[in-house]
Design a protein that fits this description.
- By secondary structure, the chain is α+β, with helices and mostly antiparallel strands.
- Helix content is about 45%, strand content about 10%.
- The chain has 6 helices and 4 strands; from the N terminus they run αααββαααββ.
- A 4-stranded antiparallel sheet has the order 2-1-3-4.
- Strand 3 and strand 4 form a beta hairpin.
- Helix 5 runs antiparallel to helix 6.
Length: about 210
């Protein structure tokens, strides 16, 4: 019975489908459909459309280029940090890695951020150790930079204690990684620094050794 059903219905449906497929111009689909999609996306980009269903990410209104100048002062940095917190989107849209640093500083030589450039030999970006692949537990560059950016932005938004708590929670982990630190390790301190246009601002610091 089942064989009879297929034998009577399948050829008719198949011949109908085959006839329409033969009439369809596939060159239109291959050439024109991608062109239409490309044209549509180009128009959306030129007009900076940020509404659904085109996109739900504010990739134009909140985007900052890598060549953007540093915040001129702490007030501007705070405004940008708060805007990111309100938006809820990745920090990379509104914050740049070069605006902050997690530094290992020779606390015996350097007392303030104004001396960071003067005594460059006594300052090391902790990321050079954290992201070095020669160490067993190296961090991914994107993860490390985004974490430091996030902590900096949260601190700039008004919660200054956040940076201190973050350093306290993670310093034991960093110590356990057995990085080959400089000879002044016993005097080392970790500084989270915000780089402004006119100066460097210290957000939090903690001694490397108890």
């Amino acid at each position: 019975m089942l064989a009879q059903v297929f034998s009577t219905r399948t050829p008719k449906g198949y011949s109908f489908f085959r006839a329409h497929v033969q009439d369809f111009d596939f060159s239109f689909a291959v050439v024109w459909i991608p062109s239409i999609i490309f044209l549509f996306l180009t128009i959306a980009a030129l007009h900076r459309i940020e509404v659904w269903p085109i996109t739900g990410v504010p990739m134009y209104s909140q985007y900052i280029s890598l060549s953007a100048p540093r915040p001129k002062d702490g007030s501007e940095a705070s405004q940008r940090a708060k805007a990111w917190l309100i938006s809820g989107y990745p920090i990379t849209l509104m914050w740049i890695d070069e605006w902050n640093s997690l530094l290992l500083v020779n606390g015996k030589v350097i007392r303030s951020t104004t001396e960071l450039r003067k005594f460059a030999a006594d300052v090391i970006n902790l990321g050079t150790y954290a992201m070095d692949p020669k160490y067993k537990f190296a961090f991914y560059r994107r993860y490390w930079n985004r974490t430091v950016c996030t902590v900096t932005a949260l601190s700039c938004s008004g919660n200054m204690k956040y940076a201190e708590d973050w350093l306290s929670e993670n310093i034991d982990v960093w110590r356990s990684l057995n990085w080959k630190l400089p000879h002044w390790e016993k005097d080392a301190e970790i500084w989270l620094v915000l780089h402004l246009a006119s100066e460097d601002q210290l957000l939090a610091k903690l001694k490397w050794h108890y």
